[in-house]
Amino acid sequence: MTLKSWLATFLVAASLGTGAAFAQDASVIDPVKNPAKARFMALAQEKFNKDPNAMFNTTRVAPGDRQAVFECGMKSVLADIPEPDVQRLVDMIEGRAPSDPKLAKWFQLEASSNPARHDQVAGRAKTICPQFAGLMK
Q1: Quick check: 40 and 31 in contact, CB under 8 A?
Q2: Cβ atoms 103, 10 nearer than 8 A
Q3: Cα(79)–Cα(36) distance, rounded to whole angstroms?
Q4: Which residues contact 47 (CB under 8 A, 6 or more apart)?
Q5: Which of 3, 20, 29, 73 sits at 20 to 30 Å (Cα–Cα) from 91?
Q6: For residue range 36-88, what is the model confidence (pLDDT) as tens digits?
Q7: Is 111 helix (H, G, I), strand (E, B) or coil?
Q8: Which residues touch 53 (CB under 8 Å, ≥6 apart)?
Q9: pLDDT on residue 131
């Protein structure tokens, strides 16, 4: 499974809908505290800016809410991934490392196939962006 499909799996599986406020708790992607997470978020943001539909189906999200939903989802997923694993993901994206199937566990978020990770990310969403917490399925 590619990183793109992992991200798509999360954002589709999370089924985040509409909301007006931006995702909160910037510490998840603080470049001083979590440089790899900040870099991963920047890379994901670049991809999202080029084509939001490349990462998740934006038709279910009002255009004005897409950025906030994207941020909420990414922060909720990244929050519990150890910094060394995120650095390996960044290295993969930037072509410095081969794909590592072991990292797929962080992006397997469907409640039916990985309830523990699903619950972990849903719990993080409640903390990071409570305005979207009710939208997690």
Answers
A1: no
A2: no
A3: 12
A4: 4, 54, 55
A5: 73
A6: 999 999 999 999 999 988 777 777 777 887 888 888 889 999 999 999 999 99
A7: coil
A8: 59
A9: 77
Residue of 36, 41, 39, 38 whose CA lies nearest to 55? 41
pLDDT in tens, 2-30: 344 444 444 443 333 333 334 445 577 88
Residue 10: CB atoms within 10 A of its CB come to 24
Helix (H, G, I), strand (E, B) or coil at 18: coil
**DSSP calls for 24-54:** --GGGG-TTT-HHHHHHHHHHHHHHHH-GGG
Q: How far apart are CA 111 and CA 86, in angstroms?
A: 22
Does the CA dihedral 19-21-22-27 come out positive or negative?
A: negative
Residue 82: CB atoms within 10 A of its CB come to: 11
Q: Maximum CA pair distance of the chain?
A: 38
Amino acid 33 reads K
Average pLDDT taken over every residue of the chain: 79
Taking the C-alpha atoms of residue 54 and residue 4, their distance in angstroms, rounded to an integer, is 8
